[in-house]
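Project outcomes to date are best conveyed with an example. Our students and postdoctoral researchers have been running inverse folding experiments weekly, and each run begins with a structure described purely in tokens. The record below, which covers 208 residues, was selected by the lab manager from last quarter's runs and is presented without edits.
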């Protein structure tokens, strides 16, 4: 049970830090009233998001190292090998990208009144994906929601090395498959949202 709790705590810390960097890519420009200048620059939405994501990965990696060392020193907890850990981190980082893009999309569509999603969306997702408890503890409708979250499958894959039986089969296939679908879909939606924000004047309103 200690391994279950600590893998969840480490995952939560890394996920939150990484996704905030993606979400803040847009929010910082809004708060500083400079978003219209950013949109005038010859930068695509892909550069805008991926650049912030890379910074988030670096910060998330630092958080992971700190939490892993702390867990080893205080609880004598060891990570489950290099390859499984790299796969888990890849899953966390991809999920963080997806969450961050969802936040940016919502802000471009609905403005600053939904900026709270930068902090709340990842928390809601963590409640459903089995970070704090096995997903089979969830009521039946929420089990389906858990299945649709890529991080659920990466966590189940990683925890299987500590003897926890996965609830869903083919964890890595589902984890990477869902991540790819969500990432491609959200990039396309963001491209549309950027164009729509220019046409509707949302960019100017966010800069006021």
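After processing, the design step wrote out the following sequence:
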């Amino acid at each position: 049970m200690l391994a279950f709790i600590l893998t969840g705590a480490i995952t939560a810390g890394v996920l939150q830090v990484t996704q905030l960097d993606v979400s803040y890519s847009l929010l910082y420009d809004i708060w500083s009233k400079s978003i219209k200048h950013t949109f005038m620059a010859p930068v695509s939405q892909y550069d805008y998001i991926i650049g912030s994501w890379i910074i988030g990965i670096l910060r998330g990696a630092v958080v992971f190292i700190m939490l892993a060392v702390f867990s080893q020193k205080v609880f004598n907890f060891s990570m489950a090998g290099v390859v499984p850990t790299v796969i888990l981190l890849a899953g966390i980082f991809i999920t963080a990208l997806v969450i961050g893009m969802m936040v940016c999309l919502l802000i471009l569509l609905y403005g600053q009144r939904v900026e709270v999603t930068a902090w709340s969306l990842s928390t809601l997702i963590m409640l459903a994906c089995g970070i704090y408890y096995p997903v089979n503890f969830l009521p039946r409708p929420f089990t389906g929601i858990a299945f649709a979250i890529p991080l659920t499958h990466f966590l189940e894959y990683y925890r299987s090395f500590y003897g926890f039986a996965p609830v869903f089969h083919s964890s890595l296939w589902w984890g990477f498959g869902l991540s790819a679908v969500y990432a491609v879909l959200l990039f396309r939606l963001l491209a549309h949202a950027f164009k729509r924000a220019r046409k509707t004047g949302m960019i100017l309103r966010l800069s006021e």
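DSSP finds nine helices and no strands in the chain. Residues 2-206 form one domain. The training component of this project remains on track.
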